[in-house]
Amino acid sequence: MATTVHIANFENKVIDLLTGISTATTPIGYINAYNGAQAADPSVAPAGSFVFATVSQAPNLNTKMTFAGQGVSQLSTTVPPVTPAGAATVSTITTARVFTTSQLAILDVTASLVGGGGGIILNTLDSTAGVGFNVAAFAIKLPLNNGGTLSWNAALVDRMIDMWAGTSTVSPEMGKNTNGQCLFQVYSGAAPASADLPATGTLLVSAAIGATNIWATASGGSSALVSNPSSLAVGTGTAGYARMVKSYGNLTFIIQGSVGTAATDFVISTTAITSGVTTVTLNEATLSI
């Protein structure tokens, strides 16, 4: 068994919060455990039995998660059921379903005792009627990169996790200039090892993103461009990598990726750039998790 996610309730929501298409947060809330085979998707009823027939009676993690660091938020304390009397007798618990505070299912994770390596740690794998289980440990994480060349800086990933942990309600809005300036920038040379490192090379292009969001509403766990920012070059050289940068109060959010005229994270109109002469357009880009 492994963690499975609900595309509409989690993946699409993460991307829409990232881009600013949506700014309404629905943080992690209830944890309901069940036995039997893990469901194929959190939208599917499992073959086994849930401990709580009513989700709102289960342990509620809202306000119990820590502020994120390096994209990780953890449970700060053991959480008992909201209404223990609603618990049923369920033996051999294998999986726990994570719901938002509005009771939308978003994740299924393996359940275990301490030392068992589960995605969530319970105090018991055998619920007793009227008692249920306590959640002893749980963490939620987003990686700093997609396993390839696209990466986010820690400030951005932490903000995204904090919205799910319930410790922030402010979207970074990486698709428009609301609450801060958003820029698409192209640099020469090799990309820094991470989006947290200072930009290197020569700044070739700095295109301002306007008040209209450049990203589409996420579908199937990804979002593509709906408009194409462009700008006259401010430097001369060959495009090496690109960044989308958002200044948000005292924070800076960064998405860094490869750049080229095809098959890169950011597809631009040309990589041969001359200051004051070349107009560079961002033709294609996709965000996915």
Describe the structure.
The protein is mainly beta. The protein folds into 2 domains: about 5-140, no CATH class; about 175-289, no CATH class. The protein has helices at about 5-20, 155-165, and strands at about 5, 30-35, 70-75, 95-100, 105-110, 120, 135-140, 150, 180-190, 205-210, 220-225, 230, 235-250, 250-255, 260, 265-270, 270-275, 280-289. Strands 1, 2, 3, 4, 5, 6 and 7 form a 7-stranded mixed β-sheet that branches.
Attribute tags:
about 290 residues; mainly beta; 6-stranded antiparallel sheet; elongated
Topology, element by element:
Elements: E1 4-5, H1 7-19, E2 28-35, E3 72-74, E4 93-100, E5 105-112, E6 120-122, E7 135-141, E8 151-152, H2 154-165, E9 182-188, E10 203-209, E11 222-224, E12 230-232, E13 237-248, E14 251-257, E15 259-260, E16 266-268, E17 272-273, E18 279-288
Average of the residue pLDDT scores: 95
**Count of separate structural domains:** 2
Helix content: under 10%
Helix count, per DSSP? 2
> Which segments are poorly predicted (pLDDT under 50) over 5 or more consecutive residues?
none
Q: What is the 3D form?
A: elongated
Number-wise, the strands total: 18
Distance between the termini: 20 Å
The main β sheet shows up as: 7 strands, mixed
Mind telling me the C-alpha Rg? 22 Å
Tell me the strand percentage band. Answer: 25-35%
From N to C, what is the helix and strand string?
EHEEEEEEEHEEEEEEEEEE
Query: Class by helix and strand content?
Result: mainly beta
Assembly level: single chain
